[in-house]
């Protein structure tokens, strides 16, 4: 006897992975979220959306559901008892109450690996831009000024040491690119990777303080958690090599922006390459006014390839968990297994 297909709520319809979507809808009853207020959405979770087993949320500010705000304790607590998996279509998840999902026995997945190449490419661009002073040169050209290149002379990154904070998928992709332009690569992780992987990526492990004091460039590639918030702060900047370059492609909250500005004024930090900011879209005025810095509006993973991957990985997670009890990129699996 045929059974009802599991119900899945998509906060926005797929825009990129249409081929994966066409297969997905054969196995699931898909509901598409209709724009509404946060209060109405919370109400509908116990009525209109009662019985859903999964939610996919594309973490892209262009979609109307972003107006709902964070999927915090208030929203997650309202999830119906039928819920089994929540997928956030992004790598970062600092605006999701993962602890509440775990309390409710709901698997949480991000879409890790989907933006590895795009974000690593952005990190490399920020490194090269700060080394070669491309930003101030471009500004001059656009202003109609053919600047004497001696005024913006840069330096080669080859031979310099880059320290990567967080050697996950994105960190490893950054390491590959930095090795390709001749940089020496070292890293710090909460857990050191095994020797075979260190050899594969040509990286050297350092303690946190060792990395700070010996890196010419520091790239922040850790997820934002309570442990990594302000991982670079006033105390950290006291330990860095004078003239270090700071690159952040993770989350703005990983760097204390006020302390960063103070370190720039003190000459400890020479330049920054930032794709993320602590209170984005607000940016510290001292960063905006200094044309030596390379600043981007959080576009590190913004490619059609990334968005395809996010959608595809999201649907794969839902399908695997509801049909096989497995997932491709689980975050809180161990927490819900303890229940």
UniProtKB/TrEMBL annotation:
One of its GO terms (cellular component) is cytosol. PROSITE patterns: D_2_HYDROXYACID_DH_1. This is Uncharacterized protein. It holds the Pfam family 2-Hacid_dh_C. The lineage of its organism: Eukaryota, Amoebozoa, Evosea, Variosea, Cavosteliida. It comes from the Eukaryota. Residues 21-332 form the D-isomer specific 2-hydroxyacid dehydrogenase catalytic domain. Keywords: NAD, Oxidoreductase. Residues 124-300 form the D-isomer specific 2-hydroxyacid dehydrogenase NAD-binding domain. It comes from Planoprotostelium fungivorum. Belongs to the D-isomer specific 2-hydroxyacid dehydrogenase family.
């Amino acid at each position: 006897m045929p059974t009802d297909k599991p119900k899945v709520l998509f906060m926005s319809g797929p825009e990129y992975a249409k081929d994966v979507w066409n297969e997905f809808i054969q196995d699931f009853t898909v509901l598409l979220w209709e724009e509404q207020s946060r209060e109405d959405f919370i109400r509908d979770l116990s009525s209109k959306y009662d019985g859903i087993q999964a939610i996919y949320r594309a973490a892209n500010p262009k979609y109307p559901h972003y107006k709902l705000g964070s999927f915090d304790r208030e929203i997650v607590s309202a999830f119906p008892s039928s819920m089994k998996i929540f997928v956030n279509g992004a790598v970062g998840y600092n605006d999701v109450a993962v602890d509440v999902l775990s309390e409710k026995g709901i698997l949480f997945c991000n879409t890790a690996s989907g933006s590895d190449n795009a974000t690593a490419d952005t990190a490399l661009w920020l490194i090269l831009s700060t080394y070669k002073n491309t930003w101030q040169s471009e500004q001059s050209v656009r202003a109609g000024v053919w600047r004497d290149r001696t005024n913006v002379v840069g330096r080669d990154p080859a031979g310099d040491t880059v320290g990567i904070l967080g050697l996950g998928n994105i960190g490893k992709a950054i390491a590959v690119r930095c090795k390709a332009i001749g940089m020496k690569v070292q890293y710090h992780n909460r857990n050191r990777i095994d020797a075979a992987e260190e050899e594969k990526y040509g990286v050297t492990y350092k303690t946190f303080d060792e990395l700070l004091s010996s890196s010419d460039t520091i790239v922040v590639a850790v997820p934002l958690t309570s442990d990594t918030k302000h991982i670079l702060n006033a105390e950290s900047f006291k330990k860095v090599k004078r003239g270090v370059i700071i690159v952040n492609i993770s989350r703005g909250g990983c760097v204390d922006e006020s302390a960063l500005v103070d370190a720039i004024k003190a000459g400890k930090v020479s330049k920054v390459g930032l794709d993320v900011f602590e209170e984005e879209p607000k940016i510290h005025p001292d960063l905006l006014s200094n044309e030596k810095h390379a600043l981007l509006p959080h576009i590190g993973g913004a490619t059609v390839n990334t968005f395809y991957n996010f959608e595809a990985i999201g649907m794969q997670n839902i399908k695997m968990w509801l049909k096989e009890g497995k997932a491709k990129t689980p975050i809180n699996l161990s927490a819900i297994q303890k229940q």
